[in-house]
Amino acid sequence: MTRFIHDKFAKDYLEELLKNYGEVKASEKVAGEIKEIDVLFTPSKQQSSNL
Predict the structure, then answer these.
(1) What are phi and psi of 39, to 5 degrees?
(2) Alpha helical stretches, state H, the chain
(3) pTM score, two decimals?
């Protein structure tokens, strides 16, 4: 079980919210850093005007 239930909810919510606009990865490790980021969002190359 996750330590902080709100943390899991926020990650799932952001992933669901942003998945139509680009790539979303929860708990991604950053190269060259010791830290781990919570949510990594990479927008699609094709931008929608109704974003």
Answers:
(1) -140, 130
(2) 5-18
(3) 0.54
